[in-house]
Design a protein that fits this description.
The protein has about 260 residues and is mainly α. The chain has two domains: about 80 residues, no CATH class; about 110 residues, Serine Threonine Protein Phosphatase 5, Tetratricopeptide repeat. The protein is built from 14 helices and no strands. The relative contact order is 0.06.
């Protein structure tokens, strides 16, 4: 739950110069422990606001940066840009910020992954792949980087390579729902419908209302010739997640089938 209203947050950054770099391995300010705790709360509130009210968060973060907010303020502003759909600007800024962060590898890789995710949303597969590979060069077993690389590999039709990365993830996390759904999708595209169904069924046993899982379930069932079951899966998806992008795709499949059977 957010601890500050939008107005309180903006007012706070105007009167309180925050030096929160210690949270990310930068030089810690010589302040009392209470001040450091306040810095962390400020950053958390800014990031929460970036998700719920990104325009307000962006304005506040810019002001915060101007009074000494440093890397946390920039991170909040760039996260808000992502929420506003300005993916390329966010991706470039996050990549630049990651290059400037040296002391804290964990924060650096988080920024790189967030940049890669922004490039993916901007439909830039080459840039996405490059960021994922850079993270894996630093942390070869980073599961989030493997997942991101698998997503971009699948988006460009490299399904075998995507499945390999996803299998690596599932060796470590056998109940990773996202990896199961993505590998099921890769198997479906490769024509291995039985393997696809096994992964998707497993994913839905762990998260029965997952929109991407329900969408894929319908596609696999359709490929296996069970059109009635496919229709049921897509209708369940639309009912559970009426505003989700996966539901829009499911509705388009149902509309196409309806058009085919109509005289």
């Amino acid at each position: 739950m957010m601890r500050m209203t939008q107005a309180t947050f903006v007012a706070f950054v105007l009167i309180a110069p925050i030096l929160a770099g210690a949270a990310y391995g930068q030089s810690a300010p010589s302040t009392a422990e209470e001040r450091q705790d306040l810095d962390k709360v400020h950053y958390q509130d800014c990031m929460s606001l970036a998700l719920s009210h990104p325009k307000s968060a962006l304005d506040g973060a810019k002001t915060w940066e101007g009074v000494g907010g440093g890397a946390p303020a920039r991170h909040c502003a760039l996260s808000a840009l992502m929420q506003l759909g300005r993916y390329e600007a966010a991706a470039r800024g996050l990549a630049k910020l990651s290059q400037e962060v040296q002391a804290n590898t964990t924060f650096k890789t988080q920024l790189m992954l967030q940049s890669g995710a922004a490039w993916f949303r901007a439909d830039k597969p080459d840039q996405t792949r490059r960021l994922a590979d850079q993270v894996l060069a630093l942390e070869p077993d980073n599961l989030k980087a493997l997942l991101l690389r698998a997503k971009v590999l699948g988006s460009v039709g490299k399904f075998w390579e995507a499945a390999d990365d996803l299998t690596r993830i599932l060796y470590s996390e056998s109940e990773n729902v996202d990896a199961l759904i993505l590998r099921g999708s890769a198997y479906r595209h490769m024509g291995a419908q039985d393997l696809a169904l096994k992964d998707i069924t497993r994913a839905l046993s762990l998260d029965g209302n997952n929109p991407d899982g329900l969408l894929e379930h319908g596609l696999v069932l359709q490929n296996l010739g069970d059109l009635a079951a496919a229709k049921t899966a897509w209708q369940a998806l639309i009912k559970a997640h009426p505003n989700d992008e996966a539901s829009q795709r499911a509705q388009s499949y149902l509309d196409k089938r309806k058009a085919v059977v109509q005289p």
